[in-house]
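[Q] Does anyone have a clean structure-token version of this?
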Amino acid sequence: MIARHLRIHGRVQGVFYRAWAMRAAREISVSGWVRNRKDGTVEAFVQGDAAAVGRFVEQAREGSPAAQVSHIETSPAEPEAGLEGFTKKPTV
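[A] Here you go.
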């Protein structure tokens, strides 16, 4: 099991990016969360097997059909024990 912290930049708010991320995470079978940030980025934490996390990160570069992702900052993170499902957190 691995985990990644993502910061997604571009036109990613107001374009259903978080809803897309939740759907994609369920389809790929990864756990974690997604939220908007006040600076206009979207932040996500994703964990699962290495191949699934890699697929999520690759798909996150496209996001929802209306999104325009300019780049993603990705950093390793510690997996969270007992984390199940993928949720939407409040904006920070």
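[Q] Thanks! Anything notable?
[A] The two ends are 27 Å apart (CA to CA).
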